[in-house]
Protein: ATP-binding cassette domain-containing protein
Amino acid sequence: MSALLEVEQLSKCYFKQRGLNRKKIIALQDVSFSLDTGKTLAIIGETGSGKSTLAKLLVGIEKPDSGIIRLSGQQVDITNYKKYNHVIRFIFQDAGHSLNPLQKVGQMLEDVLRLSTILDTEQRRVKIRSTLRTLGLLDEHAEYYPHMFSGGQLQRVALARALILDPKLLILDEALTALDPSLRAQIVNLLLELQQKNGLAYLLITNNLRLVRHISDEMLVLHEGQMVDVGNTTAVFNNPVHDYTKRLIKSSG
Structure:
C-alpha cells in the first residue's frame, strides 16, 4: 500500500538580480519523504531553510524545478493543481489575514463548496453547518464577519475552510504560532481529535520543537534547503545525526 504523500528529490531555486549580477539561490535540493494516512510529519528549520518553499510547492503556489510529488500513489500533475483541492488543503500562519474581511464566514464556505463540489444549495447549507459544529462553532457564526471572532475562533474558521472539502491532508504552515499557549492547546487537541476520527494526515511546518515532540510521528529537519535529519520524532530527538539538529534541540530546552 502506497503512502498518502510521497515526495522524491524535490528541488527549487530562485534567481536574484543585483545590477549586472544574477545570483542563484537554492531553496530546496533533492528533498524526499513520505507521509501515511493518519500521521503527522513535522518540517522544522530556521528562517530560510526552505520550509515555506516546500509548502508552496506541495499546494501548487509555486512549481518545482525538478522532482516528483505523488498523492495516494498517483503522480501529481503540476500544471493542474486544482484537481487536488479536495485532497490537500493549506492553512496559513495568520488566520485573520487569510480571510476576506468583507465576506461572511458562511459565504466563504459556500464559495469553496460551489467551486469544488456538485452539492446543491441545501446540501451546501447542511455541510457548512455541520462543519462549523464539528469545529466547536455555532450555526449563527455563518453570519459573522472575521472581525467578530476571537483569535481562537478565527483559527477554527480557517480550519473549517480547509476541512469543508473533506481533505486527506492538511498543511499547517506555522498555523499555531500566533496563538497564546492556552488557545494553542485547544486547537492542538482539536486537530488530534479530528485526526483520530477522520484519519487526517498533517504536514506541520513549525519552529516550535515542543509542539513537534508532542504531536508529530516523524520529523524532517531542513538546513539551507537540504535534508539533514529525518525519521521517527522520538529517535531524532534522542539521537540527532547532524550538528544543526543538535543545536536546534538544545536551544529548544
In short: Residues 44 and 221 are 5 Å apart (CA to CA). The beta strands are 5-18, 21-35, 40-44, 66-71, 74-75, 88-91, 169-173, 201-205, 218-223, 226-232.
